[in-house]
Amino acid sequence: MALSHPMRIGLIADDGAAVAHLRAYIDNPYVADVYLASASEPASLQLADQFGIIKRIFTDYQQLVTDKSVDVVDVCLPGQLCHSAVLAGLAAGKDIIVSAPPAATVPQFDEMIRVATAAGQKLFPVLWQRMVPAHRRAKELLRQAAIGPVALATITIYANDPGCRNDADSLSQASAQLSHHSTFQAIFHPVYMLQHFFGCPTAATAVISPGADTSDNDSLDTAAALLQLPGPILGTITVASTPTSTNWQQQREIVGTEGIILIRDDPEDEMPLIVIKDDDFSPVKVHCPLQVKPWAIARTLDHLIDCIVNDTPPHITIDEARDALATTVAIYQAAEQQVTIQLPSKEE
Asked: What's this model's pTM, rounded to 2 decimal places?
């Protein structure tokens, strides 16, 4: 996209999710203005007071996407709500940035991809954890075989603060499926990181139990998934709400034949990346900024905007997002059917 003017972003977002994107756009040299579409006009007005980059407010995203002055549409909604908003933006001739997960089902995402491809428009998923500094350095260590062949990779997620998640219930388009959104989102992120580190899973087994707080329709469920990764490597993902967790906390442990890599980036940690070999405990120097999640979201958006402006391919691809979505859906199917779900080989 060759622009003769500063870029104007049309942001479709719930109130909580909008903040990180707005902060990113304020600092982006290509972005001049943001138009915001949200179901809550009072909350949007409050955001406009807080972020001077917001120039117009809509309560109907259809009006936003058809506004001719909008260059790019950023759909920052729960996955269950992305499909119709993305298709509306594509129908209006806009390039699209879409949150993660980008859809509720693989057929929905496939339709988004087909429409974007047919129209010659760009569709960029925001797989922001790929930009986390500790993740990027860990990928380098794995390429260097710093801990030998890997046998096991585990990712554990704890959460208690609903502000860490998209407030899906505040949206007028909410459906009954949103009760699964937080857990679906929580699983999706470690899935794409495991496949980034090791390749796409070939099989999935899982157990998912309702969260303890049944009064919260978007509460985090307790989940455990076992993935067969190439190698063969076993990958595990566990998710749980905890009364002591005040943030969305994650810890990763990658076990090799010659050592272990620990990745800890949230909450902020003085030692976000550690390699353990025998009795040797070695912190790996890596810059992990405070509030790493919004920082990584901003770096992801910077990268995608740069790709749009300069018409260059992104490091984060549609195929990555589709593979992760297929695996996340398979995890839910495995839990519901109490079976192991076989996933197609990428060589097929």
From this structure: 0.90
